[in-house]
Amino acid sequence: MTSPLISTDELAALLGAADLRVIDASWHLDGRDGRADFEAARIPGAVFFDLEAASDHASALPHMMPGPEAFADHAGSLGVSEADEIVVYDTLGLVSAARIWWMFTVMGAARVRVLDGGLPKWIAESRPVEDGASAAPVRADFNARHRPETTAAFDDVVAALDGRVQIADARSAARFEGAAPEPRAGLRGGHMPGARSLPFVKLLNDDATFKRGDALTAAYRDAGLDPRKPIITSCGSGVTAAILTLGLAELGQAPGATSRLYDGSWAEWGGRADARIEP
Asked: Could you confirm whether 70 is annotated as catalytic?
């Protein structure tokens, strides 16, 4: 099995390869533009993937997955094709990079990985960076092959409430329990009946690198989840849920029929009067 993670050593050895495409996926929940991070310091040759610009603007929900044509157009404008070796990172270590990894996976890219430890680890090791505005990429053809089996919709989650499919919630424990307010106005607090709380930080080491092997398996099991069985991942708006999906892929359960991400996540569930909520 090929890991969905790539080390800084491995990426450093690949820099300059003709089919390598490095993507800065920096994004902030508070609305700050990740492009400022990109222009302050980036891995040489990286392009900036704007999560908001690449989202489905017809949806009232935040940064929903766009259709295949729209995604292909955005990826192609960055000079990325589905056949490239794609490495995604962000400037916080690991927050939004997993979401972009998932999006490329959903659209059929076969060789896409996340930089373990992200830009903080890269810089801590005194590896080269660029800054300032970047040159416009040469457009590429991205042939999207949409894989709908990677994604869960509202009705899929409703059906999962009978207990046949596990639901893993990447939000903080306080938000899961309804003890902390949601950052988006108009959403109820709490969680889906039967869901398990697995804050995404539980999958990370102190240096924002990913846990591996038994330590990673234990993070899921400690939350009452079996990573070998079907799981739907969720969070506030589908971003950090992808970190749980990435962890499952690291354990051998790639996005597909048994590992799905609920794209609407709590932004949809918490805003619907017909959605059942605990506690």
From this structure: no
